[in-house]
Amino acid sequence: MRKYIIKIAIIMIVSIIAVSNLTFAIDFGDADAFIGKGETNAKISDLNEVAKPFTALGNVLRFIGVGIVVIATTYMGILYMISPPEKQAKLKQQLIGLVVSAVVIFGGYYIWKILTVALDNLTTG
Predict the structure, then answer these.
(1) In which domain, by residue range, is 51 found?
(2) Residues 36 and 91 grouped into a single domain
(3) Which member of 20, 21, 73, 105 lies 3.0 to 4.6 Å from 65 by CB, making a disulfide possible if both were Cys?
(4) CB neighbours (10 Å) of residue 79?
(5) d(CA 93, CA 106)
(6) What is the pTM of this model?
(7) Same domain membership, residue 71 and residue 125
(8) In 91-122, which positions are buried (b, 16+ CB within 10 angstroms) versus exposed (e)?
């Protein structure tokens, strides 16, 4: 327990030092110049160009997630078929977790897709 407290204290100290250095490094004198640059060069970049890296990353993560869900479902299905009734009851409980994880993977993807389409329609609107 003492090791965890020491680790947490070290992480907190490092975080505080990092945040304090970050706040002192910000020069507020140039803020007006920065805002002025934004107003003179005000153009919205193409959202599709900005979203390309995130879309590729999302597709890779979704592909990995689908593969893991398929492999885990197959493995647990085979175990369920060859297990005695006592172990089948335990596997049913684990299958609930598998279903929840599949819903999170697919639900997260479709929520992301709905939001991107809705926000894209708002900006081009």
Answers:
(1) 45-125
(2) no
(3) 105
(4) 14
(5) 21
(6) 0.52
(7) yes
(8) beeebeebeeebeebeeebeeeeeebeeeeee
Number of domains in the chain: 2
Q: Which two tokens stand for residue 106?
A: 């697919």
Ramachandran category for residue 16: left, alpha or beta (phi over 0 → left; psi -120 to 50 → alpha): alpha
pLDDT in tens, the chain (125 residues): 667 677 676 776 766 665 555 444 455 556 666 666 655 554 555 666 767 777 778 788 888 888 888 898 898 888 888 989 888 888 888 888 888 888 888 888 788 888 878 877 777 65
User: Does residue 83 share a domain with residue 60?
Assistant: yes
